[in-house]
């Protein structure tokens, strides 16, 4: 059934990733016809996957599709099981086919589970997007900050719990660096 022409195979792979169907993803990868880091064309009307150099974008123009690798798709669609499978199979953690790494996307879509998974396996927290942002710049929820800010050190459960329950705290200290924490709306 996977003797499909290459474009249809890529589409089937994309659909399996979006549905978090690890069985089908595994079967497609096992055919050997599709590289784990194949660049896919993904519907992206919100431009979550795209990052452009400043000055290179026309304000009135909006793309409907972006380029992404499988790991980007998993993060965008919260396909955690497929993300685990891809990482175990050696998917690239820090590639940017359209200007952002999977970690940039995880932060922008407020996906702490995928952000933690990527960080546990070596995603670079200080990688710069094409537009000049690190994953920390894309964080829009306070729950992502501890995982990102302290990714290179061990954070005690006591400190993490205090941070999450004490919303009045304005910053965390990690590796001799201060990171701001924004209070959640009441």
TrEMBL record:
Highest taxon listed in the record's lineage: Eukaryota
SUPFAM superfamilies, per database record: Ankyrin repeat
Residue spans of the ANK repeats: 98-130
Gene3D superfamilies: Ankyrin repeat-containing domain
GO CC terms in record: nucleus
Record GO biological process: positive regulation of transcription by RNA polymerase II
Keyword Cytoplasm applies: no
Keyword Repeat attributed: yes
Keywords: ANK repeat, Repeat
Gene Ontology molecular-function annotations: transcription cis-regulatory region binding
PANTHER family on file: ADA2A-CONTAINING COMPLEX COMPONENT 3, ISOFORM D (PTHR24193:SF121), ANKYRIN REPEAT PROTEIN (PTHR24193)
Descriptive protein name: Ankyrin repeat and SOCS box containing 4
Provenance organism: Neogobius melanostomus
């Amino acid at each position: 059934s996977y003797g499909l022409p290459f474009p249809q195979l890529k589409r089937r792979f994309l659909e399996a990733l979006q549905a978090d169907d690890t069985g089908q993803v595994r079967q497609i990868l096992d055919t050997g016809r599709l590289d784990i880091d194949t660049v896919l064309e993904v519907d992206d009307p919100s431009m979550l996957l795209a990052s452009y150099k400043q000055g290179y974008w026309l304000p009135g123009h909006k793309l409907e599709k972006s380029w992404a690798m499988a790991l980007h798709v998993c993060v965008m669609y919260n396909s955690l099981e497929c993300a685990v499978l891809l990482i175990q199979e050696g998917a690239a953690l820090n590639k940017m086919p359209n200007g952002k790494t999977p970690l940039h996307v995880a932060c922008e879509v407020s996906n702490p589970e995928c952000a933690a998974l990527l960080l546990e396996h070596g995603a670079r927290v200080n990688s710069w997007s094409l537009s000049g942002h690190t994953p920390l710049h894309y964080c829009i929820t306070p729950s992502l900050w501890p995982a990102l800010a302290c990714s290179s050190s061990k954070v005690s459960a006591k400190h993490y719990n205090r941070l999450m329950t004490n919303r009045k705290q304005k910053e965390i200290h990690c590796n001799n660096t201060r990171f701001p924490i924004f209070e959640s709306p009441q």
